[in-house]
Amino acid sequence: xxxxxxxxxxxxxGRSAASLTITDAKNAHIWASGDCPEGSASALVExxxxxxxxxTVEWDRKRSAEHCxxxxxxxxxxxxxxxxxxxxxxxxxxKVSFVLxxx
Length: 103
Known about the structure:
CATH topology: Immunoglobulin-like
Low-confidence stretches: none
CATH class: Mainly Beta
Number of domains: 1
Structural class: mainly beta
Mean pLDDT: 92
Strand content: 35-45%
Order of helices and strands: EEEEEE
Strand order of the largest sheet: 3-2-5-6
CATH architecture: Sandwich
Largest sheet: 4 strands, antiparallel
């Protein structure tokens, strides 16, 4: 996330304010941070004026389903192209594709 203003700001990356969703090339749900969340506490990060911050999320290739249900299909994501979508309250949505190689 990049702050284009000259003054610092705070951004909430907590589970109730930010979400990350992964879909496959057919737009099928693969994994989402909100499927089986652990807690909903805020995770405020201060971003300096004209600065930026990055957050890293490690994903073990396991699929998820809403409300902690067992996902349909294979348990792990297969090699292929995927789309990750990040939403942060008040900042909109960002999307980027990535490729998983064979494990």
